[in-house]
Amino acid sequence: MDNKLEFSTIDEYITMAPPETQAVLQKIRETIQAAAPEATEKISYQMPTFYFEGNLVHFALAKKHYGFYPAASGIAAFEPELTAYKHSKGAVQFPIDKPVPYDLITKMVVFRLAENKQKAAEKLAKKKNK
């Protein structure tokens, strides 16, 4: 997607994407929403972002792939399931011309949600102990 465009909502982001990618972007969004219903939506780093006690996951459209960003911990936890995809420390690329693994996205979002909840609980416990 054109990096010069600025978005303020995920709806705007999806609407500005090429028509042939909009349904998949919407399905990725719905998959994340279903896995983390308590998360809120926002745009962060000009990417659709889900937030719960901190950034949960981001997703984006590139020229030849859908980017999914579950943080380094999300990539590390699912490394064996990511061997078929190009990935880095904090991102995975799902090729536009191949089926998107929505089940894997769900698992990664659930993992990140649990992780953010745990971090928030630990932070709260530290505050109470001061």
TrEMBL record:
Residues 22-111 form the YdhG-like domain. InterPro entries: YdhG-like. Pfam families: DUF1801. This is Iron chaperone. It comes from Listeria seeligeri.
